[in-house]
From TrEMBL:
Pfam families: Trypsin (PF00089). This is Kallikrein related peptidase 15. Belongs to the peptidase S1 family. Snake venom subfamily. GO terms for molecular function: serine-type endopeptidase activity. CDD domains: Tryp_SPc.
Length: 256
């Protein structure tokens, strides 16, 4: 059974409208991504994010909403198994130059009202000391839609799409800027990085944004945007390149 992990890319003025490319993936080993954060808006799952310190969470700017809460240590969103932590957000700081239409500077810091208690299931991800290189192996994770491909009585494949309760992971690789620029001519910026799996996407559906792209244990990307319609494209997903924002991240954290 193939499981497909989705990215989101569509935006509105107040919240992320979820959709995106589905990648072959599977349920993560529980709590193998201890930095994974679930952002909630008024009790509803909205986006993914990453814990980068006990006080700070990093996500995509287009995930901003007026009412946000953070859930840490999650695996199954419908089941409490002990390590979960819920935190209010005291301050939301999107990048001051974020542009909705171009997806430029799609990055946002959230300050927790109470610091996270660090445990084996809740732990920050390391920020990069260098930018990712082409071909580097990475993992993207999130609670986006999954699709189970089954066979119809006619012999043709049937896709059943549903929201998973559990965190899913997909193994993908960094795509070179040269290759990605051919897929998105005039749209790719040096603050973005592309990643994908061989063969590309297979469907289009709702999912989550803002989640982590982790390469060798380091946060190299934030799920940002991608091509539409995803059921006919083989183009990679586009991520905010975290290494381009290290100075901004550190300045914000030090000031607050």
């Amino acid at each position: 059974m193939w499981l497909l992990l989705t990215f989101s890319f569509l935006l509105t003025s107040t919240a992320a409208q979820h959709g995106g490319k589905l990648l072959k993936g599977e349920e993560c080993v529980p709590h193998s991504q201890p930095w994974q954060v679930a952002l909630y808006e008024r009790g509803r799952f909205n986006c993914g994010a990453s814990l980068i310190s006990p006080h700070w969470v990093l996500s995509a700017a287009h995930c901003w909403t007026g009412s946000m809460r953070v859930r840490l240590g999650e695996h199954n969103l419908r089941k409490r198994d002990g390590p979960e932590q819920v935190r209010a957000v005291s301050r939301v700081i999107p990048h001051p130059q974020y542009e909705v239409r171009s997806h430029r500077h799609d990055i946002m810091l959230l300050q927790l009202a109470q610091p996270a208690s660090l445990t084996p299931q809740v732990h920050p991800v390391a920020l990069p000391t260098h930018c990712p290189h082409s071909g580097e192996a990475c993992v993207v994770s999130g609670w986006g839609l999954v699709s189970n491909n089954e066979t119809r009585t006619t012999g043709r494949p049937k896709s059943q799409v549903s929201l998973p309760d559990t965190l899913h992971c997909a193994n993908i690789s960094i795509i070179s800027d040269t290759s990605c620029d051919k897929d998105y001519p005039g749209h790719l910026m040096n603050t973005m990085v592309c990643a994908g799996a061989e063969g590309g996407g297979t469907d289009s559906c709702e999912g989550d944004s803002g989640g982590p792209l982790v390469c060798r244990g380091v946060l190299q990307g934030i799920v940002s945007w991608g091509d539409v319609p995803c059921d006919t494209t083989t183009k990679p997903g586009v991520y905010t390149k975290v290494c381009s924002y290290l100075e901004w991240i550190r300045e914000v954290m030090e000031r607050n």
